């Protein structure tokens, strides 16, 4: 009888240890995924409307730029250069070696007009530039140019400030989709 009770107690404590081990492994795995692979992000403002709305929840791939270079029109998440504790999201429109200008409400990169089907209909842009982007820097703009603090205001984005590429809008469910140009 005593042996049976000891066996039951040992089995109960083994069950708790197994559960604790599973929780620790799950937490460690979640931390690794969030630190190195993917991270959820909440859109804080209307600067990327209509592409992204305030309160939208997205997944940011931290892995994307380990295997490929950022591309024009990528929606990227980065540390805000004037205050790196803040995280911003904007569209990459030009990179090192490119020349950017805005003229007559139109974006030009290397002298060519950029078709920007993602812009809202009522967008108005003041003339800007031309500015040549040095290597290791990006020029980023919000899609809602009327309401976006971006490279026109605070300057160029150092490549090292980029945290990742916005890849998936997952909330609200009715707006679920891949994020791309």
Q: Could you characterize what this model shows?
A:
- This protein starts with a helix and ends with a strand.
- The chain has 3 helices and 12 strands, in the order H-E-E-H-E-E-E-E-E-E-E-H-E-E-E.
- It is an alpha+beta fold and 181 residues long.
- The strands form 2 sheets. Strands 1, 2, 3, 4, 9, 10, 11 and 12 form an 8-stranded antiparallel beta sheet that branches. Strands 7-6-5-8 form a 4-stranded antiparallel beta sheet, with no helix packed on it.
- A hairpin with a 2-residue loop joins strand 5 and strand 6.
- The longest helix has 36 residues.
- It is 24% helix and 33% strand.
- It folds into 2 domains: 38 residues; 136 residues, Umud Fragment, subunit A.
- Tell me the Rg in angstroms: 23 Å
Low-pLDDT residue intervals, each spanning 5 or more residues: none
Number of helices: 3
SSE pattern, N- to C-terminal: HEEHEEEEEEEHEEE
β-strand percent reads 25-35%
Architecture of the largest domain, CATH level 2? Ribbon
Shape: elongated
List the domain count as a whole number. 2
What would you call the structural class? alpha+beta
Task: Write down how many β-strands occur, each being a DSSP E stretch of 2 or more residues.
Answer: 12
Average pLDDT, rounded to a whole number, is 86
* CATH H-level superfamily of the largest domain: Umud Fragment, subunit A
CATH class of the largest domain: Mainly Beta
Oligomer: single chain
The helix content, as a percent range, equals 10-25%
CATH fold-level topology of the largest domain: Umud Fragment, subunit A
Distance between the termini: 71 Å
Major sheet: 8 strands, antiparallel
């Amino acid at each position: 009888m005593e042996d049976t009770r000891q066996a039951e107690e040992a089995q109960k404590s083994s069950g708790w240890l197994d559960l604790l081990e599973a929780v620790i492994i799950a937490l460690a795995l979640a931390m690794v995924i969030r630190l190195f692979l993917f991270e959820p992000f909440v859109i804080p403002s209307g600067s990327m409307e209509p592409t992204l709305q305030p309160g939208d929840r997205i997944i940011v791939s931290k892995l994307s730029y380990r295997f490929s270079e950022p591309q024009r029109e990528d929606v990227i998440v980065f540390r805000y250069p004037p205050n790196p504790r803040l995280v911003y999201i904007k569209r990459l429109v030009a990179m090192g070696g490119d020349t950017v200008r805005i003229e007559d409400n139109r974006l030009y990169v290397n002298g060519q007009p950029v078709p920007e089907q993602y812009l809202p209909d009522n967008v108005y842009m003041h003339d800007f530039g031309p500015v040549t982007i040095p290597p290791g820097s990006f020029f980023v703009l919000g899609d809602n140019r009327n309401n976006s603090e971006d490279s026109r205001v605070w300057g160029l984005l150092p490549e090292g400030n980029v945290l990742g590429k916005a890849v998936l809008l997952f909330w609200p469910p009715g707006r679920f989709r891949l994020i791309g140009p």
